[in-house]
Amino acid sequence: MARFILRRILQAAFVLLVMSFVIYSLIGLMPGDPIDIMIASNPGATPELAAALRKIYGLDQPLLSRYGHWLWAAVQGDFGYSRLHSAPVLAVLAPALWQTCKLMLISFTAAVLLAFALGIVAALRPGGPVDALISLFAFAGISVPVFWLALMMILVFAVDLHWFPASGIATVGDGSIRDYARHMVMPVITLALAQTGGFTRFVRASMIESLRSDHVRTARAKGAGEGRVVLVHAFRTALIPVVTVMALNFGSLFGGALLTETMFAQPGMGKMIYDSILGNDYNLALTGLLFATLVTLLSNLLADIAYGWLDPRITLA
Predict the structure, then answer these.
(1) What is the rounded average pLDDT for all residues in the chain?
(2) CA dist., res. 24 & res. 43, Å (int)
(3) pLDDT tens digits for 173-205?
(4) Is residue 150's pLDDT more than 80?
(5) 136, 154, 156, 135: which is closest to 146 by C-alpha?
(6) Cα–Cα–Cα angle for 105, 23, 251, nearest 5°?
(7) CA atoms within 13 A of residue 258's CA, in its CB half-sphere
(8) Percent of the chain with pLDDT over 90
(9) Cα distance from N-terminal residue to C-terminal residue, the chain
(10) Residue 154's closest CA among 255, 256, 265?
(11) CB-based contacts of 108: which residues, under 8 Å, 6+ apart?
């Protein structure tokens, strides 16, 4: 196990290195740079001043040389300075990362629990009316765009019913937990429903296959109760392919909550990366995208480790 984890960590480090170069190169090829923006906002700036600023910031050097300087500084914990926020990148990244982690973990947990319940119920009577209703709900969750769902949530629960605030993370002058929870309800429900449909379909298909397997029939023949057969023997086997899908979706949630965060004005990672790309804030955009890549790699590693726990026949050697 230790050798497997070490090998995967080394592989993740190599992937991060390659991704950092690819992202740095793509951002470096974007038209314009921070100096152009600074000069455009200052009509009195001369070409000599622009050239001097590019030399100070190293923008007059070749792309590979600039990447090497950035990589060496990043290894030492210095990810540069954010131009948009006039602060170190890590200082800007920390609150956005914390906000996204809370939104992501709560919505992902809600989506997984709901998908497990619906998928198991649908698999017990495939083709029946309950299965048809759950399948309809799942297909609707897959098909409905996130921005439309967010708009409907705002229109119904914020504008018409006045149950929840339409945007933000707290009311001005009220920093209570209850107020914060009210602001989180609609973003969490929106992001959870966007994930539940796909998860439910995978759980249902995997459970139907597992319930027809030999070891489940053997458990029934030995006199095991239906609840134990479904929740212990069938469900544990059905989790193996489902874990892979959920691990991949967990990583994509880190940077994929852009629409939800934008619609509800949540200052998270998705919106921060989007704003930094539009504002040519190279250091902040690069670091944010690398964090999203790191979360995806870690979620895949945890999924591989979970395989061995779910099925002892699987070896990680």
Answers:
(1) 78
(2) 30
(3) 666 778 778 888 888 888 888 888 888 888 888
(4) yes
(5) 154
(6) 20
(7) 14
(8) 1
(9) 7
(10) 265
(11) 192, 195, 249, 250, 253
What is the pLDDT confidence band of residue 35, given thresholds at 50, 70 and 90? low
| pLDDT, tens only, 273-316 | 888 877 777 788 888 888 878 877 887 777 777 666 666 555 55
Structure tokens belonging to residue 286? 């690069």
Which residues contact residue 7 at a Cβ distance below 8 angstroms, ignoring those fewer than 6 apart? Answer: none
Q: For residues 168 and 310, what is the distance between their CA atoms, to the nearest angstrom? A: 40
CB atoms within 10 A of CB 207: 25
Residue written as token pair 């690069």:
286
SS (H, E, C) the chain: CHHHHHHHHHHHHHHHHHHHHHHHHHHHCCCCCHHHHHHHCCCCCCHHHHHHHHHHCCCCCCHHHHHHHHHHHHHCCCCCEECCCCEEHHHHHHHHHHHHHHHHHHHHHHHHHHHHHHHHHHHHCCCCHHHHHHHHHHHHHHHCCHHHHHHHHHHHHHHHCCCCCCCCCCECCECCHHHHHHHHHHHHHHHHHHHHHHHHHHHHHHHHHHHCCHHHHHHHHCCCCHHHHHHHHHHHHHHHHHHHHHHHHHHHHHHHCHHHHHHCCCCCHHHHHHHHHHCCCHHHHHHHHHHHHHHHHHHHHHHHHHHHHHCCCCCCC
* Domain coordinates in residue numbering, the chain: 15-78, 90-310
Structural tokens at position 181:
């929870």
Within its chain, how far is the Cα of 251 from the centroid? 5
d(C-alpha 10, C-alpha 194), whole Å: 33
Superfamily of the domain at 90-310 = MetI-like (1.10.3720.10)
